[in-house]
């Protein structure tokens, strides 16, 4: 890239070189995203494939297809998967409930602070753009850095 018009000293980079480097990084990021999507899609399994995998697992455990023990093994694997999913659902429900409780506690604090600041000219009056919300009991806005009235 050293021509008479783009002469540079040793160690000096040109804008064109930085553009090429940025394109390489962008291409690498796109490839990484495509790989992540492919892995995500590979994790998707149809019910028929899952049933076949369960049967293969029970066969590897030493159960013979067509026996009661084999059927019990496949049912146990299905129940274990259902229990795992139920536990995962309960976990996310509890996380959502905890987040809701934290948000409500923060809003209660903002309401109290805003009401305590009522009439204090050092703080602006809360409005719809405030981070808090509206107290439906008093029909006033509240927020972290403002006053109710």
Low-confidence stretches: none
Sheet-strand content, in percent, reads under 5%
Order of helices and strands: HHHEE
Largest sheet, described in full? 2 strands, antiparallel
Helical fraction: 55-70%
Number of helices: 3
The average pLDDT score comes to: 82
Gap between N and C termini, in Å? Answer: 67 Å
Q: How many distinct beta strands?
A: 2
Number of domain units: 2
- Secondary-structure class: mainly alpha
Shape: elongated
Radius of gyration: 31 Å
- Main-sheet strand order equals 1-2
In short:
By secondary structure, this protein is mainly alpha-helical.
Annotation keywords:
149 residues, mainly alpha, 2 domains, elongated
Task: Please provide a written account of the structure.
The chain is mainly α and 149 residues long. The protein folds into two domains: 31 residues; 97 residues, no CATH class. It is 62% helix and 4% strand. It has three helices and two strands, in the order αααββ. Strands 1-2 form a two-stranded antiparallel ribbon. A hairpin with a 4-residue loop joins β1 and β2. α2 crosses α3. The model has no long low-confidence stretch (mean pLDDT 82).
